[in-house]
Write a structure and sequence with these properties.
Two copies of one chain form a homodimer. Chain A has 401 residues and is an alpha/beta fold.
Chain lengths: 401, 401
């Protein structure tokens, strides 16, 4: 008998009426003869409300207590969904993450799953029950409740699907699948029927909020097929799986991320160890750096720019200014008026024309490119924030038909 | 070093400002050189709100899921109080009931504590931390979260105090102690400085909402001294302890309970086994019977009355009507227009004048007595509900000066 793991996000369980609808979907899947494990997030804005409560008490709340606090949101969803399933006449077993065998490290608020002990889940499935697990949470080696970071319920679902060798992991959300770009910005955006883990990963880190990037990594590593689809529609959706070769379409999606900021060091001495010093200091401060560009050196000096998440800009700038003085740079600047536009597609490296087409589309639209960064399956350009929307439309038009 | 257990109820942690005040009290106790374990309830109306959410989904929500749902309220309080303590510069460890070693039976929504495994609490106390435990919850043998019934946080605090052999268990509430009667009804009510477990128990079951009656039973059984006091005042309060003899004042308190209903069987055959049949059937339906009065038999028939909680009246009446037909009674009636007034005091049985004084006070106030029930330390009279307030004032005036 097939095991199906379903994950329902916060918007799918935002109120009691929506929870009843989710219960119907779950029961329908169960009635088709599947063993069903459901992973749920906290209802709608619950997590934000809990964070604001904590801030009223402590400006930077201690992370272990934060995890205990945030874990309650998912418990409420689990209990209510179980009640809704039992109301339909089926047996449900609701499990907090820490009783469902989700063991993590002790990096509170962004813990990593170490193991999934599926004994309890399997035991309840054998009794014919529908198992409902609280997403986003686990248990540290010190027996404290941990959480897995924003979007962590995706990771819970994928990890359970992997550990149970589930047939599929269904990620239910409020959009009907993964789009070629943001349909709110570009109405011509289309749903991508099949996408590879790699592309999905680039999309997640390029700012598309479809699936948590760590969840996609996990799915890829353990070959767990997933489908991203809407809670409201029976069919459609985007299949995320192993795709090694795609004829025809090379670019599968275009994304825009306007939550970036750029730091630039002017006239850095071009010596070994300088980059290591700068990015070592940022890493120590737990700041993720995204795009890094260093210009060709002239007369022993170079300019070095990198982007960080906009929320880290102040901290990154402070660290950079100090380092700039130490390194005797001419100047260090911070700039949050930027956006990052990215095209993503498997096999892009074997089609050198893609980069040229992207740059031409931007030029034709009158958009200036400030930084460029490429990987095996993506090309990102940093542009002015105000030109983001125009750039997105132009590049999408060029590649997606 | 002395261990002190403090319990803060829902009104003491109703908002973040109040939680900060509680943190100060806790830290002050810790700074005096005590090891402190704090037990907290859910914030203000949280539990009621969660119950109403559940009812939107299921008219009679399954109890296991209900417990999972309700347990979240206390977790939020624990996390926020820990943050407030850490904000003051002290280390706190927040523990859900199920990690604090509270093991219960599996009677969901009204579970009984079986054992308290204090290893984790002691380990954290040894590290110099203030331990904050979620009240009202435990873990069943099947590893499901259970709750201990309304007022269950008192029980958690007492049980932990007993298991740790704490010096004292302090029950903080929004009133400055245990009063001789309800001060909202009788302004002359006074605080009782010392009261015995037995009297406290009678008060709890007579409708005074100061401490959960199961918590008082537990405190008595394991000789755990407690004090009931206000969160807002440093001194005062009521000490609940072993008191075997009290000179002078015999009546320590007077209570009024208007949440009672009376069922009467008219003309029941006065044969052995009839009462067993009636109260057996009510017990099977999980209905607690309070006062029972049977009149003297005349010509082989008698009238039998008893009171139940007003919320059980419909169910009790239905069962009684069926039994009444079976037993060929003349009539069975239900009446919720009643109240119960009770005087409580140690050694009352050795002072026969107490009953007479109570009856005279009622008669002088023009209050008719419908039923009388006595125990070793209390006398209860059932009267008309509308006369409750008048009766309470008169009886309090008679005994408390």
């Amino acid at each position: 008998m097939a095991i199906i793991v379903q994950k329902y996000g916060g918007s799918s369980v935002a109120d009691t009426e929506k929870i009843k609808k989710v219960a119907e979907k779950v029961v329908n899947t169960h009635r088709k003869g599947n063993k069903v494990v459901v992973v749920v997030s906290a209802m709608g804005k619950t997590t934000d409300n809990l964070i604001s409560l904590a801030r009223q008490i402590h400006p930077s709340p201690p992370t272990r207590e934060m995890d205990l606090l945030l874990s309650t949101g998912e418990l409420v969803s689990v209990a209510l969904l179980c009640m809704a399933i039992e109301k339909l006449g089926y047996e449900a077993e609701g499990l907090p993450g820490f009783f469902a065998g989700i063991r993590t490290d002790d990096a509170h608020t962004k813990a990593r799953i170490k193991t999934v002990d599926t004994r309890r889940i399997i035991e309840e499935l054998k009794k014919g029950k529908i198992v409902v697990v609280a997403g986003f949470q686990g248990l540290s080696p010190q027996e404290n409740i941990t959480t897995l970071g924003r979007g962590g319920s995706d990771l819970t679902a994928i990890a359970i699907a992997g550990a149970l060798k589930a047939e599929i992991c269904e990620i239910y959300t409020d959009v009907p699948g993964v789009f070629t770009t943001d349909p709110n910005l570009v109405p011509e955006a289309k749903i991508i029927p099949v996408i590879s883990y790699k592309e999905m990963l680039e999309m997640a880190s390029a700012g598309a909020k479809v699936m948590q990037s760590r969840a996609v990594e996990f799915a890829q590593k353990y070959h767990i097929p997933c489908v991203v689809k809407s809670t409201c529609q029976e069919n459609g959706g985007t299949m995320v799986t192993e795709v090694d070769f795609k004829e025809g379409a090379i670019v599968s999606s275009v994304t825009l991320d306007d939550k970036q900021a750029k730091i630039t060091f002017f006239n850095v001495p071009d010596k070994p160890g300088i980059a290591a010093k700068i990015f070592g200091a940022l890493g120590d401060a737990n700041i993720n750096v995204d795009v890094i560009v260093q210009n060709v050196s002239t007369s022993g000096y170079t300019d070095l720019s990198f982007t960080v998440n906009i929320t880290d800009m102040e901290k990154a700038y402070e660290i950079s200014r100090k380092l700039g003085q130490e390194l005797k740079c001419k100047d260090v600047t911070a700039d949050n008026d930027i956006a990052k536009i990215t095209v993503i597609g498997l096999g892009m490296m074997n089609h050198p024309g893609v980069a040229a087409r992207m740059f031409k589309a931007l030029a034709d639209a009158g958009v200036n490119i400030e930084m460029i960064s490429t990987s095996e399956i993506k090309i990102s350009c940093i542009i002015r924030k105000g030109e983001g929307h125009k750039a997105l439309k132009a590049v999408h038009q060029e590649f997606i038909r």
